[in-house]
Amino acid sequence: MEPEPVRRVLADNLRRARLDSGISLSELSRRSGIGKATLSALESGAGNPTIETVFSLSRALGAPISTLLEDSVPTLSVVRGDEQDVLSGPTIDLRMLRTLRRNGVAVEVFDQQIRTGGPQPSSGHIGTEHTIVQVGTLRVHVGEQTVDLHAGDAIAFDAHQPHSYEAIDGDVRSVLLLEYPPGEAQRVFDLHP
């Protein structure tokens, strides 16, 4: 799938989330560390979003990633992984598959592929992060702790903390779930009823 749909969806959702939060482009720039011109380009659909950009915006807005990336979802849907837009970082590719909502909790489901080449850091974001390794060995750093996970292993942690993923001995395939409790999930419900 071409990158244009992700740009269009991000442009629409970013502007709506920023305005709903009542903050200016300048304030979002300050909070996210992303230049005002870059934010303006993203809101107009002309920018080139990266995984780091989307996570920074999510953190700065205090909003789940799906608030920025998800179009409305029909009651019945089939998601083909190879047809989804990819958010890429230096060693990671994420494909958003679905947002699940129940009893005030929202869970975003991602196909996650981590390539060898060093850790993919995150300075933290809202929610609880769950990763289930399907193939390979994944090293996860959370705060001062380091854990190696193998196929079939899972980890969960408070995603507000700095953390990183690193593929050890070959590429890793995993499922990433970002869970937002009722207070944090409300933004998902408000923006994507």
Automatic annotation (TrEMBL):
One of its GO terms (cellular component) is cytosol. Residues 14-68 form the HTH cro/C1-type domain. CDD domains: cupin_XRE_C, HTH_XRE. GO terms for molecular function: DNA binding; DNA-binding transcription factor activity. Signal peptide: none annotated. PROSITE patterns: HTH_CROC1. Keywords: DNA-binding. SUPFAM superfamilies: lambda repressor-like DNA-binding domains, RmlC-like cupins. PANTHER family: HTH-TYPE TRANSCRIPTIONAL REGULATOR, METHYLPHOSPHONATE SYNTHASE. This is HTH cro/C1-type domain-containing protein. It comes from Luteipulveratus mongoliensis.
